[in-house]
């Protein structure tokens, strides 16, 4: 968009202007200098260098007035990402760019720009400059059944919870809309997972692991039609940082309550943690004697083959292969079957939220990471692919359904 050029970090020095309390002002046509941009503002200059008249704002500006297409140098001293649009009204059709907030020690400024800024908007995460706050998610309505899960708000559609880089939590109910259900702080969690109703109140719940303490928390779904979450309950007092691939699995034990699985980092063993009648977890059971450190992603898929037992998908790190481990009636896993011959390591997230195609068989969605390529070209992150379940444990070929999923650090 703007042929952005980064100069060296400018050290904060000298007297900083306090501002006149106005949202947008124009400085006198004296040589302002980058140090004259007040803290908390985005500033622009009409010259190719940071000299001459200075314009500033700390609010969204849909139309730049006399400064439309006139800013040729700028700096961002706010605490938000500045979205810079070539068209008025935050329209992305003519192009857009973004500028991260400056650091406290110093800040980069940019010179010799094309001068095409027509509107500016401030957001918490740069993906919001081009796409909605939440990823676009569509799912078909289905009739509840024994293999049904993934519906947080009870609307008969599979839902998605996503976390952005700002640490906010978003809920998308399957009709392309979304809403905020966690205003911040979710970056403190290094695992998010859900599959079924742990508390027994009829609403699906979310489980999260706290990175700093290794504690495991349960956030009960409220079932209010908004996909919201209630006050959290501690279900694991510590030590969970010693486990990888913490995954809500579904009812493997056959007692009517969903269970949790996780592999132990130190041994590569796979353990089942049975759900209890009180919404907690019971004594763990060994269901995989070793080798599970070779897997870098697990997905509790539900009953993919129609035998009445929930199944597991696991991705092999060294090969990018996808394996099916069928659940058994004894509460364990059967012999694995290869269902994906390779390439699955280019998926940053595997998303198992039940049946989203409406045919009563669980499906899989996957979001590409920054290594994903098409025909030898690097395509990058944020592409959503849907893989329809065939009913025999396998998947149909993937189809690309959306490209707005970049900028999200976890989905479940």
What does this structure look like?
- Keywords: Signal.
- Residues 1-30 form the signal peptide.
- The chain has 412 residues and is mainly β.
- It is built from no helices and 32 strands.
- The strands form nine sheets. It has a five-stranded antiparallel sheet, with no helix packed on it. The protein has a four-stranded antiparallel sheet with strand order 13-12-11-32, with no helix packed on it. The chain has a four-stranded antiparallel sheet with strand order 14-15-16-17, with no helix packed on it.
- Strand 15 (206-210) and strand 16 (216-219) form a beta hairpin.
Taking strands numbered 1, 2, ... along the chain, how are they ordered across the largest sheet? 2-4-3-5-9
Tell how many strands the DSSP assignment holds: 32
Q: Give unreliable regions as ranges.
A: 1-31
Spatial separation of the terminal alpha carbons: 34 Å
Give the proportion of residues in helices.
Answer: under 10%
Give me the number of helical elements.
0
Tell me, briefly, the overall form.
elongated
Average pLDDT score: 88
- Report the sheet-strand fraction: 25-35%
Oligomer: single chain
Major β-sheet profile:
5 strands, antiparallel
Briefly note the structural class of the backbone. mainly beta
The gyration radius over C-alpha positions equals: 25 Å
Helix-strand layout with pairing:
Blueprint: E1 10-11, E2 24-26, E3 42-45, E4 54-57, E5 73-76, E6 81-85, E7 96-99, E8 106-107, E9 109-110, E10 119-123, E11 160-164, E12 169-172, E13 179-182, E14 189-193, E15 206-210, E16 216-219, E17 233-236, E18 243-250, E19 259-264, E20 270-273, E21 285-288, E22 295-302, E23 311-316, E24 322-325, E25 337-340, E26 347-351, E27 364-368, E28 373-374, E29 377-378, E30 384-387, E31 399-402, E32 408-411
Antiparallel strand pairs: 1-8, 2-4, 3-4, 3-5, 5-9, 6-7, 6-10, 11-12, 11-32, 12-13, 14-15, 15-16, 16-17, 18-19, 19-20, 20-21, 22-23, 23-24, 24-25, 26-27, 27-30, 28-29, 30-31
């Amino acid at each position: 968009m703007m042929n952005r050029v980064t100069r060296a970090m400018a050290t904060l020095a000298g007297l900083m202007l306090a501002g006149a309390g106005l949202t947008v002002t124009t400085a006198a046509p004296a040589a302002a200098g980058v140090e004259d941009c007040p803290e908390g503002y985005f500033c622009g200059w009409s010259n190719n260098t940071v000299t001459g008249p200075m314009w500033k704002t700390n609010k969204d500006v849909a139309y730049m007035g006399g400064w439309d297409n006139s800013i040729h140098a700028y700096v961002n001293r706010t605490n938000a990402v500045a979205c810079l649009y070539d068209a008025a009204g935050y329209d992305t059709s003519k192009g857009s760019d973004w500028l991260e907030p400056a650091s406290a020690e110093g800040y980069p400024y940019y010179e010799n720009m094309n001068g095409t800024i027509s509107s500016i908007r401030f957001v918490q995460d740069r993906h919001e400059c081009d796409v909605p706050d939440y990823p676009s998610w569509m799912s078909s309505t289905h009739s509840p059944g024994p293999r049904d899960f993934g519906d947080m708000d009870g609307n008969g559609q599979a839902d998605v919870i996503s976390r952005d880089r700002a640490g906010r939590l978003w809920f998308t109910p399957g009709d392309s809309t979304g809403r905020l259900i966690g205003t911040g702080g979710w970056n403190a969690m290094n695992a998010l997972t859900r599959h079924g109703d742990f508390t027994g109140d009829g609403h699906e719940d979310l489980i999260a692991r706290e990175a700093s303490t290794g504690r495991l928390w349960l956030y009960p779904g409220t079932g209010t039609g908004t996909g919201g979450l209630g006050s959290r309950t501690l279900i694991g007092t510590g030590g969970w940082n010693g486990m990888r691939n913490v995954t809500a699995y579904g009812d493997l034990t056959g007692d009517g309550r969903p269970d949790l699985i996780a592999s132990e980092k130190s041994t590569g063993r796979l353990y089942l943690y049975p759900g209890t009648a009180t919404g907690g977890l019971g004594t763990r059971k060994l269901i995989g004697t070793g080798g599970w450190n070779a897997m870098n992603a697990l997905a509790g898929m539900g009953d993919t083959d129609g035998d009445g037992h929930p199944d597991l998908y696991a991705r092999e790190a060294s090969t990018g292969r996808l394996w099916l481990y069928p659940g058994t009636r004894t509460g364990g896993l059967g012999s694995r079957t290869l269902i994906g011959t390779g390439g699955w390591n280019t998926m940053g997230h595997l998303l198992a939220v039940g049946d989203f195609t409406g045919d009563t068989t669980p499906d899989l969605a996957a979001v590409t990471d920054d290594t994903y390529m098409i025909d030898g070209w690097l395509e990058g992150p944020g592409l959503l692919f849907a893989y329809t379940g065939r009913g025999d444990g396998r998947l149909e070929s993937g189809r690309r359904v959306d490209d707005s999923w970049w900028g999200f650090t976890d989905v479940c």
